[in-house]
Amino acid sequence: MIKSIIIAGFGGQGVMLMGKIIAESAMLDGLNVTWLPSYGPEMRGGTANCTVIVGDEPIGSPVVDVPDVVIAMNIPSMIKFEEMLKKDGIMILNSSVIDREPSRKDIKVYKIDANKIADAIGNSKVLNMVTLGAFARVTGLVKLEMIGKALEETFAGKNKKLIDLNLEAVRQGMNSVS
Amino acid sequence: MATVDKIVAQMPKSLSKVEFSYCPGCHHGIVHRIIAEVIDELGIAEKTLMVAPVGCSVFAYNFFDLDGTVAAHGRAPAVATGMKRALPDRIVFTYQGDGDLASIGTAEIVHAANRGENITTIFINNAVYGMTGGQMAPTTLIGQKTTTSPYGREPKANGYPIRMSEMLSTLEGAVYIERTMVTTPQNVIKTKAAIKKAFQAQIKGLGFSMIEVLSTCPTNWGMTPIEAMKWLEENMTKTFPLGVFVDKTKGMI
Amino acid sequence: MKMLMKGTEAIAEAAIRAGCRLYFGYPITPQSELTEYMAKRMPEVKGVFLQSESEVATVNMLYGAACTGKRVMTSTSSPGFSLMQEGISYMAGAELPAVFINVMRGGPGLGDIQPSQSDYFQSTKGGGHGDYRMIVLAPHTLQEAANIMGEAFDLAFKYRMLVTILVDGMIGQMMEPVELPEWKNIEELKEPDWALTGAKGRKPRKVTSFDLDPYELEKMNLRYQATYKRVAENEVRYEEFKIEDADIIVVAYGTMARIVKTVADSARKEGIRVGLFRPITLWPFPYERLSKISQNVKHILTVEMSYGQMIEDVKLAVNGKTNVDFYGRSAGVVPTPMEVLEAIKKIAR
After folding, report:
1. Phi, psi at B100, each rounded to 5°
2. Are residues C173 and C157 in the same domain?
3. Closest residue to C60, CB basis, from B16, B67, B78
């Protein structure tokens, strides 16, 4: 099994971190992973994206032309990556920002009101973790327990409250999709 | 068998037995000897590394009985930096001409000085490229004829003689910079004192030190050694005045 | 324990574990994280980090530090590597060991900052002046990159040669789980008998790339050539992936090789038997082995993130016995698995 995920959005929406937590959680679960960022001008406020691949066999190409999952955090990202998505692939949309439908009908679409849920938790920044939670529930590729560990690794030395906050966002994201 | 009561003069130990390849009347030989005497007197020969340049003194690595290398043209301060950072308790010096230091190697010397790199640079300024056959140097005087300024250096086309000691003395990291010459015994003594001070600054770990020595090049200037000395004193010192440009060593050495 | 690391960070940490305590560098994308990592890490291990004023200065600082017989390194990306060529030639001539990391980006000129493999010629054929070679290693995963650092320093000192780790922006920027290599005890590293350390209790030593007497310089050159011959005989490294029954062998290195591994699997699902031959040492290039295996296949396809550089070595190896085709994109555009698969299908037809 090898699954590929493209995560895209505005700089500042935390898409790189979302990808890293997915990769780290999968690694902690014993899977092979790669995380490949777009880098360059995108880093300075435009759109950013990263490609994460997880699998139980060795991963060759870290580059993907037909992803299994696309997580789009804004409209340009949805438009850019929709056509690449695999037939019957999964598209997770941040419906707080994306107010339109993808044009393809042969994909599974999940809408997450990520900004609203994050605001309700009390920190608008955790919208990426809300989305990550939804991704975990929808795909089953990463487990909550491993996400918790990955967050501990990532925020090592930081406030425990920060980890709890992010983990709460992941939980609420999971609960937001059925 | 004759016995020696007192040695009044001998070859410095830090010079090797290799014969100098310099032209008659060239000042490289004098400055080499001064450096070797200073190293002997300070007792640092066994912990000194030297970096020779590209130019007439490219062979300097062989004229000194010290561990040494030859840097690429102009890069001696960077090479010396690498050595000093790897072995901070050793003494490292560069020996560079005006083409090497004031033209192709300006970036390296400026930044080594600005970092306060704890090395010593001996800068030989004879206002001409010697090794390649008398071309214009960045320090060539206004109106001075060279093979690439056959009508005399013209500022509109070639700019002005660059004063490295003055420039570098503005940098925080430079602790001792002096310009001297070796045209008379008194000047030789002054130059030796300056070079000694520069090495002492390094021994004390104070930072970057440089001694610029105005020198002759009779061959490429087209003069006899005596004429060349006179020309240096009368002309070069007007553009390149002698003196101490920075001294942050007071009370430290 | 495996850690999720960025390529630049894995390489940097592995170098420190391999005994490197002297790093000189100048920031350039896409490898600045390596420089930053060293800036943070070197003081922790009592090492030296110095940000130089230019890559020209960097390579000469490396020259000076290498003269002292210690393990020294730098990292840069293509335009910076170009600036280092002068010093590389001098270091090769002075037989100084050092390790260079070139995280290649699109060129020529200022180019861009995306992954590329267009510095193959520069690295393997000598980007500076004179008859010299450097050992060029091309890892394709971060684990391999981390593992190869210790070997790079060992080779550099064994042969008194420069070693370049040639990777691209993708290997530099991506993250993958890495099991870091063991720590080398730097106390056990012997001071070489040529090192400049101050002539205490011994005759002074000279390290140069210089002799004006052509017959003496020829002797030095013949010594270099003898070294290169020994390296070519003993240090060739490569990987073969599913070549036993292959009709088409793809030759690729680094990032491109890992993309081809994926493609080989997809091609096989469509009934095309594809294998990968991956040179790990780009110099010395595995001519002999490639020559041998190329005789049993219908096609050789070279795939590069360039417009065809390594293919010249592939053709030398194959020597006209088999067709050698090419697919490549450059300038920072990375061929996707699907594109490479198409190129293979075209040949298979």
Report:
1. -65, -50
2. yes
3. B78
CA distance C238 to C286: 7
d(CA B119, CA B77): 8
Tokens 């014993």 belong to A30
Q: Which residues of chain A neighbour C170 with C-beta distances below 8 Å?
A: 36, 62-63
Do C68 and C41 share a structural domain? yes
Give the pairing of strands A47-55 and C206-207.
unpaired
Chain C CB contacts of A55 below 8 Å: none
For A116-154, write each residue's pLDDT tens digit: 999 999 999 999 999 999 999 999 999 999 999 999 999
Pick from A153-167, B201-215, C143-157, C232-246: least confident: A153-167
C window 283-322, beta carbon within 8 A of A = none
The CATH number for C31's domain is 3.40.50.970
Q: CB neighbours (10 Å) of residue C226?
A: 10
Question: Contact, C91 vs C58, CB < 8 A?
Answer: no
Note whether C227 and C258 are same-domain residues. Answer: no
| Nearest CB partner across the interface for C4, out of A24, A37, A66 | A24
CATH number, span A2-175: 3.40.920.10
B69/C94 touch (CB, cutoff 8 Å), yes or no: yes
Q: Do chains B and A touch (3 or more CB pairs under 8 A)?
A: no
Contacts of C42 (CB under 8 A, 6+ apart): C16, C21, C23, C48, C49
Where do the structural domains in chain B lie, given as residue ranges?
Answer: 28-247
Q: What is the pLDDT of residues A8-27, one digit of tens each?
A: 998 889 999 999 999 999 99
Contacts of residue B193, defined as CB under 8 A and 6 or more positions apart, other chains included, come to: none
Helix A160-175, helix A144-154: angle, nearest 10? 150
Residue C175: its chain A contacts at CB < 8 A?
A: 20, 23, 33-36
Chain B CB within 8 Å of residue C210 CB:
yes
Interface confidence: ipTM more than 0.90 = yes
Query: What's the total number of domains in chain C?
Result: 2
Q: Given the DSSP bridges, would you call strands C175-179 and C2-6 parallel, antiparallel or unpaired?
A: antiparallel
Of residues B49, B69, B107, nearest to C57 (C-beta): B107
Q: What are the extents of the domains in chain A?
A: 2-175
The rounded distance, in Å, linking the Cα atoms of B70 and C60 is 11
Q: Is the pLDDT of residue C274 over 80?
A: yes
Do C2 and A27 make contact, defined as CB atoms within 8 angstroms? yes
Strands (E), chain A: 2-10, 32-37, 47-55, 69-72, 90-94, 108-112
Angle between helices A160-175 and A114-121 (to 10 degrees): 140
* C30, C175, C339 ranked by CB distance to A39: nearest: C30
Query: How far apart are the C-alpha atoms of B134 and B216, rounded to whole Å?
Result: 12
**Superfamily covering domain B28-247:** Thiamin diphosphate (ThDP)-binding fold, Pyr/PP domains (3.40.50.970)
Q: Using the beta-carbon criterion (under 8 Å), do A60 and C173 form an inter-chain contact? A: no
Based on the fold, state whether residues C114 and C69 are members of the same structural domain. Answer: yes
- The pairing of beta strand C274-279 with beta strand C238-241: antiparallel
Q: Percentage of chain A surpassing pLDDT 70?
A: 96
Q: Are residues C58 and C95 in the same domain?
A: yes
CB contact under 8 A, C61 and B111: no
Residue C76, domain extent: 2-197+206-234
Tell me which chain A residues have a C-beta less than 8 angstroms from the C-beta of C260: 60
- Chain B residues near any Cβ of chain C (below 8 Å): 16, 45-49, 51, 58, 61-62, 64-72, 75, 78-87, 90-91, 107-108, 110-111
Q: Do C230 and C266 have their domain in common?
A: no
Determine the Cα–Cα distance for residues A12 and A107; give it in Å rounded to an integer. Answer: 27
C221 lies in the same domain as C276 = no
From C65, C200, C204, residue closest to B65, measured CB to CB: C204
CATH number assigned to the domain comprising residue C299: 3.40.50.920
Q: Do C48 and C190 share a structural domain?
A: yes
